[in-house]
C-alpha cells in the first residue's frame, strides 16, 4: 500500500515537473504605476493569453525612481531579481557603472528579431552604455508637449484654421502670446514650477533649441553654454515675473489649473494624455489639443527619454542563455504591439509602428509625433538621468530662479559649480 | 541554593538568548560593519579600498553636510520642545474631563498618530497647496492677500514640517502624560486642598515634580526620534530645493542611494549615531539631575 502511494506521488511530481518545464516563466519588474501602467497591464494580459501554455510573464510593479533602481542594484548584486525589467535610457550610465545591467549581444538581438534599424538613431544610441555596448531595447519615446485650450486660444486669435496654435514660434512671439492669453483670472501657461523634473525638462529643451551643450568631456555648461543657460533661465523667470505663469505650483495643481480652464496652456509630459482623454470622454474637459513644444530659439528640439527593456546582471546567478533568448523575443513582441502602449501618450520607439497608418490615425499622439525627429536625450553621465543629481540641481538652482528667488546668472553658475563638484 | 541560582541563570539565558541573537545579528554586527565601511571608498554595495579618515575629512569640508547637521538640530528644537509642552498641556486638560468625553478627546488627539506618513503628507500638502489649498484662506490675509506656497518657501519649510510633525505625533505623548497623571494618587490633591493649596500651587508642588520622570522619558523619545527625521522632510521637499532644507538622514540617503557612495554615507551615519548617543545621554542625565534636586 505504502509503496503504491509512493509510486503515485513520484509519478504525480514527475508529471508536475513535466508541466512546469513545458511552460516557461519570465519574472518581470516595472515601475509603471501611473495611468500608463493600466495599459501595460492590459498588454501583459494579452501576451500571457496569446502564449498560454508556453510562456507566462509574472509581473511586479514597484515604486518609480530611486527606490526602483536601488532595488534593482541591490538584488542584482546578490544574484536575485527579475529576468527582464523596464529601465529609463537616461539612467543607463548609472546602471552600467553600478553593475546592474547585462549587455545584449548583437547576435542574440538579431536572433530575436530586434534590429537597430527599427529604431531612431538617437534613441538606439541612448540605450547604450558609455562603453558602446547595447544594454537595453527602447519601448517608447516620452517627452514634454504643449497642451492647449482651443477656446481660449481662439479668443486670443492664436488658433489657426487647422485647430493648431499659430504664432508661438520665436521667443518674442511666444512672450507676446503669453501676455495676450493672460487675462483676468486666467494665466497663459501652467508649468509645475515647484517640480524639479519639470523645470529640468523645459530648461533642457530650450537650451538645446539654441545648440547649448549641458555636459561635454566632463565639463558642465562650459564656455558660452553658461550664457545660453542664463538666457534660458532668464526667459523662464520672465514667464513667472510677468504673471503669465503661476510660480511655485505643485505638479498636480498645475494640471488642475489647466483642466479647470484657469490656464490656457500647459507644459507637461505626454504621460498626462490619459488624464485629458479620460476627462474629455466624461465630458468634463473643453476642446483641447497638444503639440510639440514651440521653437523659441534657432531650431526645434525637445527633451526626451525612453522607457526601455533591460536584463539585469544577476551576479553569480545570471539569466540563462535560453531564458535570455526568450526574454528578447518577448521584448520584440512588446515593441510590435507598442501601439497599445502609445495610448498612454507615449510615442512608440519602433519605427514600423511609428510609421504605420494605425498610429497616424491615433489622436492626439500623431499631432506631436514630429518631436521624435529632433528629440534630445539627457546628457550621458552617472550624474544625469531621471531622479539624478542633475534633476536635483535643476530644483536647487534653476527652479528658485524661475520663481524669482535667484538671479538667472547666479543660478546657472551655481548649477554648474555644484555638478562639477559632484563629478570629482 | 547554588543549584537554584544556576537554574535561574539558565532560565534567564534561555529567555534572553533569542533576543541577544537577533540583536547581535541585526544590530551589533551591521553597526560594526558600518563603522568599518566608513573607512573605505565603498560604493553602495561592495567593499572598496581602505582610505582611513578620508570620508570623515570630506564630511568635515562638505558644506552640504554642515547644512544638514544644523538643519537637523534646528528641526529638533522646533519639534521636540513644542511637542512635549503641548502634550503636557493637552494631557492636563483631558485629565480633567470625565467618562466618555475624556475618551472622545483622547481619541481625537490620538487619531493622527495612527496615520502613515504618506497620508499625513498628502493631507497637509493639499491643505497648504498654493493654488487650491483650504489653508490659503487663512494664509492669504497675512500675506497681502497673495497666496503663499508654505513648503516651497525656504525659511518657512522646517517650521511648517515641525508643525505637521507635532500635530501627527502629539497623541502618543499625550497618552504617556495621561498615564503619568493617573499614577498620582488623588489623596495627595485632597490633602493639599484641605491645606488651602490653590490650583497653581498644586500643579507646581505636586503634579510637576511627580510627572517629571514621564517628562524626561517623553523628551528623550522625541529627541531620538527627531534627530532621525527623514520621511516628512523628504516628502515635503520632494522635487524642490532639496539641498536648502536637507537633514542628516536625507544626506545619508542621497549619498548612499542616489550617488552610490556607501563609504561616505556610512561615515555620516556614524556621526549621526554618535550625536544621538551623546545628546540623549547628556539630556537624560541633565534632566534627571534636575528632577532629583
Query: What is the count of DSSP helices of chain A, taking H or I runs of 4+ residues?
Result: 19
Q: Oligomeric form of this entry? A: heterodimer
Overall mean confidence score, pLDDT of chain A:
92
Secondary-structure-based class of chain A equals alpha/beta
Question: From N to C, what is the helix and strand string of chain B?
Answer: HHHHHHHHHHHH
Give the helix level of chain A as a range of percent.
Answer: 40-55%
Question: Based on helices, strands and strand pairing, what is the structural class of chain B?
Answer: mainly alpha
Tell me the radius of gyration of chain B. Answer: 24 Å
Radius of gyration of chain A: 24 Å
Summarize this entry quickly.
The complex is a heterodimer of chains A (424) and B (293). By secondary structure, chain A is α/β, with parallel strands linked by helices.
Layout of SSEs?
The complex is a heterodimer of chains A (424) and B (293).
Chain A: H1 2-22, E1 24-30, H2 35-50, E2 55-61, H3 66-77, E3 84-88, H4 92-97, H5 106-111, H6 121-126, E4 136-138, E5 140-149, H7 150-155, H8 171-181, E6 187-190, H9 196-208, E7 215-216, E8 219-220, H10 225-241, H11 251-259, E9 263-269, H12 273-281, E10 288-292, E11 302-305, E12 307-310, H13 321-336, H14 338-342, E13 347-348, H15 351-354, H16 357-360, H17 365-368, E14 375-377, H18 389-402, H19 408-422
Parallel strand pairs in A: 1-2, 1-3, 6-9, 11-14
Antiparallel strand pairs in A: 3-12, 4-12, 5-9, 5-10, 5-11, 5-13, 7-8
Helix pairs in contact in A: 9-18, 10-19, 18-19
Chain B: H1 2-37, H2 54-61, H3 63-96, H4 99-110, H5 117-128, H6 136-142, H7 154-182, H8 186-194, H9 199-227, H10 231-237, H11 248-258, H12 262-292
Helix pairs in contact in B: 2-12, 3-7, 3-9, 3-11, 4-7, 5-10, 7-9, 7-10, 9-12, 11-12
Structure explained in plain terms:
The complex is a heterodimer of chains A (424) and B (293). With 424 residues, chain A is an alpha/beta fold. Chain A has 2 domains: 13-139 and 306-365, 3-Layer(aba) Sandwich (D-Maltodextrin-Binding Protein, domain 2); 143-304 and 388-422, Periplasmic binding protein-like II (D-Maltodextrin-Binding Protein, domain 2). Helix content of chain A is 46%, strand content 15%. Chain A contains 19 helices and 14 strands. In chain A, helix 2 links the parallel strand 1 (24-30) and strand 2. Chain A is globular, with a radius of gyration of 24 Å. In chain A, 49% of the residues are buried. Chain B is mostly helical. Chain B is flat and about 75 Å long. At the A-B interface, helix 3, helix 11 and helix 18 of A face loops of B.
